[in-house]
Design brief:
The structure is a single chain. The chain has 264 residues and is α/β, with parallel strands linked by helices. It contains 8 helices and 10 strands. The strands form 2 sheets. It has a 6-stranded mixed beta sheet, sandwiched between helices. Strands 2-1-4-5 form a 4-stranded antiparallel beta sheet, covered by helices on one side. Helix 3 (105-115) crosses helix 4, helix 3 (105-115) runs parallel beside helix 5 and helix 4 (120-133) crosses helix 5. It is globular, with a radius of gyration of 19 Å. The N and C termini lie far apart (53 Å).
């Protein structure tokens, strides 16, 4: 085996360093103990998926990484530094539509690049490519009021894709998409992850989606939510989002995760 091949094998077998760490974090809203204590590490370049019943704190964890919510106790660190305010190293795609109604699709996608003072030629290229990725070619000049709910969500996804953050926080981003487009977006997200080496934390209720995408799946308990099971998804990569579901291991992972969920 060549030196290069030996180096590649060693690189793959060496665990990636920790990028994000939740240290005994809790979330309380008045008298409501919503989440924790939760201790969890996310490795650099990992695709981590979080599942669990409604109200267990899945979105709360994302908000803590983004710096939009501070833990009631405990600490969140990112790249070794305490998250104490807005984390500009992450891109956050939420369940809600945050399109500006007075801007067209392309100008909504352009917004974060304008903040970063991206050169115009590069900006135009990134915007066009991101819009094409989410299947909105032909709607560049449309305004939010002219789009369906699913299309608006795709604008939000394109806006994050355009500026390529080091970490993607995704809170059920494909929940409003039809099945065919959802599969296409799964393939696009996996391609993006493979090409960029970015870190993904992805929240979903869809077990098929979780297994298709994840390196690891974290199952949260009922409120106050905390990790009750963490499963390594040992399926070959790169993954075909259709073919992977016929792998016998896929069904075994589904049964394991389903049995761990507090759904009653």
């Amino acid at each position: 085996m060549s030196v290069v091949k030996l180096q590649e094998v060693a690189s793959r077998s060496t665990p990636a360093p920790v990028l994000i760490e939740f240290n005994a974090v809790t979330a309380r809203f008045g008298a409501l103990h919503a989440m924790g204590p939760t201790t969890l590490q996310v490795r650099r370049g990992e695709f981590l998926v979080i599942i669990g019943p409604s109200g267990c704190g899945k979105s709360t964890l994302l908000n803590m990484v983004a710096g939009t919510l501070r833990p009631s106790s405990g600490a969140v660190t990112y790249a070794g530094a305490l998250v104490g305010g807005a984390n500009r190293d992450v891109g956050y795609i939420t369940q809600k539509n945050h399109c500006l109604p007075w801007r067209t699709v392309e100008n909504n996608v352009r917004l974060p690049l304008e903040f970063r003072k991206t050169p115009r030629a590069e900006m135009n290229e990134r915007v066009a490519h991101s819009i094409k990725q989410v299947g909105l070619s032909g709607f560049e000049k449309a305004y939010p009021r002219q789009l369906s709910g699913g299309m608006l969500q795709r604008v939000m996804i394109a806006r994050t894709l355009a500026y390529a953050p080091h970490t993607y926080l995704m809170d059920e981003p494909f929940g409003s998409l039809d099945a065919q487009l959802k599969l296409k977006m799964h393939a696009e997200v996996l391609r993006l992850w493979e090409q960029t080496g970015a870190t993904f934390i992805f929240v979903t209720h869809d077990l098929h989606e979780a297994i298709t995408l994840a390196d690891r799946v974290v199952v949260m308990s009922k409120r106050p939510g905390k990790p009750k099971l963490i499963v390594d998804i040992d399926l070959p990569r790169p993954r075909d989002v259709v073919d992977v579901q016929s792998d016998p291991a896929f069904g075994a992972y589904f049964k394991q995760l389903w049995s761990a969920l507090d759904v009653h």
